[in-house]
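Our preliminary data section would be incomplete without showing what the modeling component actually yields. Below, a chain of 955 amino acids is followed by its predicted structure, encoded as tokens that our downstream tools consume directly.
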Amino acid sequence: MYESIWTHYLKLFLGHAAYAQTLVLALFMGGLAAGAWLAGKWSQKIKNPLAAYALVEFILGVWGWAFHYEYVAATAFAYDSVLPALPSPFSVGVFQYLLSAALILPQTILLGSTFPLISAALMRAFPQTVGYSLSMLYFTNSLGGAAGIIASGFLLVPRFGLPGTLLAAALLNGGAGFGAWLVSRGSESPALIPKEGAEKNGTTALRTVFLAAAFVTGASSFMYEVGWLRMLSLVLGASTHAFELMVGAFILGLAFGGFWIRKRIDAIADKTAFAGYVQIAMGLLALATLPVYSHSFEVMAGIIKNLPKTGGGYIAFNAASHLIAAAVMVPAALCAGMTLPLFTAALVSGGHGEKSIGEIYAFNTAGAIAGVAFAIYLGMPLLGLKGLCLAGAALDAVLGCFLLYFAGRSRRGASALAAFMAAGLAAVVAVPFKAETLASGVYRNGSPSIDQSERIVFHKDGRTATVTLMQDANGTLTVATNGKPDASINILPGSPPSSDESTQTLLGALPLLFNPGAESAVNIGMGSGFTTRVLLASPSLHTVETIEIEPAMVEAARRYRAVAAQSFDDPRSHIHLGDAKAYFARNRRTYDVIVSEPSNPWVSGVSGLFSKEFYSLVSRNLNPGGIYVQWVHLYETDALLFASIVNAMDDKFSDWAVYSAHMSDVIIVARKGGTLTEPSLSNTSPELSFLLARVGVRSPDDLRLLRLGGKHLLSAFFNETGVPPNSDYFPYLDTNAVKARYLQTSFFALNELRASPLPLLDMLEGARRGNAITQVTSSPFFMQHRYAVHAQSLRDFILTGAHLPEDMPNDVREAAAILNSPVCGPVHDKALLFVARNTLAFLSEGELARLWTRVSRSCGKSDWLQLVQALSARDAAATATTADKLLATADFGGDARLNAYVLKAGMLGQIAQGENGAALDLFNKYEADIFSNTSPDFTAVYLRSLAEGPVLPSP
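Predicted structure:
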């Protein structure tokens, strides 16, 4: 449990989950090694090891409870005082690692002492069954570790946060200590000391061999684990929950290895030879993981395609993910789980006493540290994923053969090594690791390979992620991390923009439109490099700094030079590798613009860029009036996840607004101090104007329609959800976003705030356009722009008789034709509402007034026309009065859409006047009649939420 929680904490400080996982694993193993060595050295002098164990558990409980406060104080001191004084990024990294070690290493040393102490107590109590006792203890200890990491990730952290989970672990320490203390009273017994002459009768070589074997098998086991974790993240996804499932499966394999050997270990006559066979078996089983892993993509594809996208399906998905991880990890881990009890029992039976426990444990964990370091810094970059597993398997095979040789069975050892080499060669040849499969993102889309129209142009296992570049037949180049596409650009000259080019363009352009005189900017996240290129289109910017934590991402981005060469060649552009928090702390600079480009908060560690603590840090690094922009995707999320982001940001910035960047992406624009001014296209550079026009933003109306609402309008709604702000220590996003990814939920409905058939933003935010003529450019990226173009066409058709476009929906086309005919009565009223729904939110008040004047000539005024005219004039009181009149005489057996429209119009009119209670009464009065056969849409839910909340301030 501590390993899991410490990883959560340290990834906040180090900047990426991969670094935290590696460091915690190394420190955890190192601390266990040191603790085990010390406990083994001193245990023979301790009269009551069980009482000593109880004391250690009590100390761990107190330290566990205090860790959160210790961490907060230490990292705050680092950010405020130490990091700013350090001279280089290298020194910052060294300090981060040293402070992380200081925070957790003492506890891990204490944890390392617990296993030898309780083992010594058991060996003294049951000296005739040493092997059985050690095996069972190793089994229960590992089983508890697997249960702890699953419980903390899926139950405790989501409910109690990181501090609460630490408290739970501390209470478990206290309970274990108290129970051990009760049992320990009066249970003193003599230590199992080395037999006299054991060091002189030939067993010194046995001790040396098994200590070396413990080191080697520790190294190989954790080479496997590091490789398997990266491999399986491409199948299960790189989420925190996936990591917990994978580590849990590995520890479970260790546990059952100890369980299997418990009744056999004391009866094994030649433990050295048996250990040799176990090592060879572990190597062979590690090789067998390669074909199992290669088929796991097809298995995951079947799971994604066939499991229902429900809460129950999500539970089944996690269970299936755990089984996939177990299928890859458990067979070899079973053998690894036998080694420690077997090696220790061999030394104890050889007369080396209970100090062997600590020695074996220490050498094994020291080997684990070496294995982790080799895997991360040499094995992965030089050998790749498959080569790393093969290297670990070769270590096990050589060790097994050596143990057989030492046991006098050299012929069998040679045969075993030959068989192993043949199996390894077969694995290399027969089990290719295709980049097309590894980059498939099967855990999201259910496809075990990338699209056939795409080809791989770059693929690299980086320090923190596997980075891939894919190009399709149209020239679109897509960069993906761990199979998840992050950015795509069409790099062919003269080609149309790619599907997400609008997001990358607006991420760089919006802060410049809000702060045209900005002189300094930072972009967090390299992506394709295109956002940095857009920022560089501003001649006022003297420097643009891009911060990227993964070097392979920068290497991949260089393939976008055809469209983003400025990101690398412009002398104002500076690319920095490292963590954004540490970079800000070390430089102590403030900026006019900060852009946060990473999305996908379900990825382990990314949610820390959406937390209130991070927004507080960002605000400190903005100049007064500075602009911060945040990319948030609307796919694989929901309203509650979005609310946790907005609620985290709300009190860190004086003003903010949400802008559409694509039908599936939004950008939150925030300001430090004062209110956001109206963005303007008037002073943009020619290059920036060209980039904006390329994605369909050419006129002030194009820009206006991107706004989905500001702090004035949205904070009340999202606060009413009751969702806590996302926090580093209560990570709502990290624990819930992966479920939204699986369920394939979305929050596309947020676009209804601008695309609604009601003028929501104008009436609630007080926007007025008078007699302006609407000029909107049609864009494939924004649905509201398409609707606005249709509104312009309806205006021109009714006022001038112009032709309607071919893509106009038939029901709207027919309604417009009715309004231009002498037909009156209910048919006319219904047609009026159809046209109004498609024009009210997009045309100016003057345009709409002329439109309805023209319509009234044929049939005169009606209640429906009065409602439409009130909405067109943004007259809240008249809207509420007319809607109430229409509802009082409505036929609720008729068209439910029209009745729902009138209800929402009435609520809008009341809320715009500050009459929230009246709006809520209106909804409660007619909800059952109007929504008897369907659920309220987002606009109705939104208005009800506003009605239930505080009165909006006057716009």
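Confidence is low (pLDDT under 50) at residues 195-202. The first helix runs from residue 2 to 14. Preliminary results of this kind motivate Aim 1 of the renewal.
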